[in-house]
Amino acid sequence: MAEIDPSALNEKQQIELATANAFLALFNQRMGTSFEPVEVSDTPDVRCRDASTEQMLDLEITLLEDRPDDIAYMLGRVEVVDEFSVTRVIDFRRDVIPRLVDRLKDKLLSAYGERTALLIRQVGPIWDATDWRREAPAVVSEVLARREKHYGMGVWILCSNTSTFPVSNDLFPLYDPAVGIAEWKPTIPVNERLVGKVAWESSPTADFQEFAERPGVDVVRVGSPHECEYAILIAFVAQELEEERQKAIEFYRTHMVFFCPCGRGNARMIGNWFSMKALPNDDAA
After folding, report:
1. Which of 29, 133, 175, 279 is the most exposed place for a label (fewest CB within 10 A)?
2. For residues 96 and 94, what is the distance between their CA atoms, to the nearest angstrom?
3. What would the pLDDT profile of 21-48 be if each residue is shown by its tens digit?
């Protein structure tokens, strides 16, 4: 069968084809298959075929934004946000998960069949498979609404792998029919970034506290280098290598020299935000 000519596709179809190719590179490696796209249509979005087995795989594809207009920005349809403007921190559970639920509410209404997979492409590069593995199991029932079996070939997140340079693609299964829906497990490969959460001791977030109380998680207190009352709490997965723990601890201790709320560093904290404007260092006075 002839290869699909991307120039003959509209913009939406080109994005879907590129997403399918990125997905299949990882899916085939994981499953030991050889699927390739053979058709781009409306339903399903992309049809794939394994020439060695003659099996078909249909893909329903949807895009997931971290913030409104992420997709439009990546397509060049909105202007770049002023680099000096301040926006609030994006939170996985409060921002990403509600958007995921919204994106899937229509996709999960109908049963698409045993040869169809639902593929969610995360547009932004902020979250990787480690973040999904840590956070998704706590909300997966809400996200899938017990309709995961509407997709016989699984429900998959195509996200970023930020441990490589340049950043590469990674795949996380919300629902893998071979093993079921995602479950949180304390055993995570030690070659992945395992620092789960970081918070000021004086104001830990509910998200940090929930993660810190999970089995298999250790919390380390890093005191201020200024010997003031402030400290940082770092939550590690228990089997994190000691060498890597020390690297993280030194990283945050070093930054506290400048960013400690006691004001002795070279950065001023305004509310919950740090101003990078240099100030006289009290220690040097």
Report:
1. 29
2. 6
3. 999 999 999 899 999 999 999 889 999 9
